[in-house]
Amino acid sequence: MEGFHFLQALFILTLASSLAYASDPSPLQDFCVAINDPNDAVFVNGKVCKDAKLATADDFFFSGLNIGKITSNSVGSSVTPVNVAQISGLNTLGISLARIDYAANGGLNPPHTHPRATEILVVLEGTLYVGFVTSNPDNRLIAEVLNKGDVFVFPVGLVHFQFNPGKSKAVAIAALSSQDPGVITIANAVFGSDPSINPDVLSKAFKLDKSMVKSLQSKF
User: Fold this and answer.
1) Contacts for 64 with CB less than 8 Å, ≥ 6 apart
2) Rounded to whole angstroms, how far apart are CA atoms 49 and 92?
3) What's the rounded Cα separation, in Å, for the pair 68 and 99?
4) 169 within 8 A of 100, measured Cβ to Cβ
5) pLDDT of 154-181, one tens digit each?
6) Cα 7 → chain centroid
7) pLDDT tens, 18-71?
8) Sign of the CA dihedral 133, 134, 139, 141?
9) Alpha carbons 91 and 36: distance in angstroms, whole number
10) Distant-in-sequence, close-in-space partners of 113: CB < 8 Å, separation ≥ 6
11) Distance from CA of residue 176 to its chain's centroid?
12) CA 99, CA 128: separation in Å to the nearest integer?
């Protein structure tokens, strides 16, 4: 019986630990405004932070998320991030935002992952076909067509995408569970790495002719 209680306690601790590391570490103070000059800083949570007494409203403010970005690029989309790089007061708070603009008739936020964050997306305008793929071995596609006001969640680390099949532009706002969620665009990482991945590797992995691999690498 004693062994059973030990295993039960171990299970609970393991579960609690996994939940604790599901997003950025919890802050140990009200805020920690990131600062580049260590001479004007104190260390809190292992980070260099501005003295809290010197914090101002500007450290917690961003303007311009109402302004759409140009989508006349190869994928037909543009992302406006609002993370710790734009709002220094987000440091240690474990949250950020992004606005995504999609061109009409095929605007795409290409398959990508956020290694440090779960994403929740709400459509403000237009229609989006969105989805994510579960991890190996299932690799199951979970997808949905979203309209204005609809919300969809992309679990942390999973490959996901958004595509505008409509005849008008689309706009969405995403919230992410990290001050700096990171992004890995699959095609860019695989075919546009620096230096390039050996074509033999990609040829075998993607079951493509080496000439096709080299052609894809040249596009990135």
Assistant:
1) 80
2) 10
3) 8
4) no
5) 999 999 999 999 999 999 999 999 988 9
6) 36
7) 444 456 665 545 667 777 776 666 655 445 788 889 999 999 999 999 999 999
8) negative
9) 12
10) 157, 158, 159, 160, 183, 184, 186
11) 6
12) 14
SS (H, E, C) the chain: CHHHHHHHHHHHHHHHHHHHCCCCCCCCCCCCCECCCHHHEEEECCEEEECHHHCCHHHHCCCCCCCCCCCCCCCCEEEEEECCCCCHHHCCCCCEEEEEEECCCCCEEEEEECCCCCEEEEEEECCEEEEEECCCCCCCEEEEEECCCCEEEECCCCCEEEECCCCCCEEEEEEECCCCCCCEEHHHHHHCCCCCCCHHHHHHHHCCCHHHHHHHHHCC
- Whole-angstrom distance, CA of residue 99 vs CA of residue 125: 12
What tokens were used for 153? 């969640």
Partners of 47 in the beta sheet? 44
Cis peptide preceding 195, ω within 30 of 0: yes
User: Using CA atoms, how far apart are residues 207 and 213, in angstroms rounded to an integer?
Assistant: 10
Structure tokens at 151: 């919300």
Rounded to the nearest 10°, the torsion over CA 33, 62, 149, 107 is -110
What's at 25, amino acid-wise? P
What is the rounded distance in angstroms from the CA atom of residue 201 to the CA atom of residue 58?
A: 48
End-to-end alpha-carbon separation of the chain, Å?
61
CB neighbour list of residue 171: distance below 8 Å, 6 or more residues apart: 68, 99, 100, 101, 102, 123, 124, 125, 126
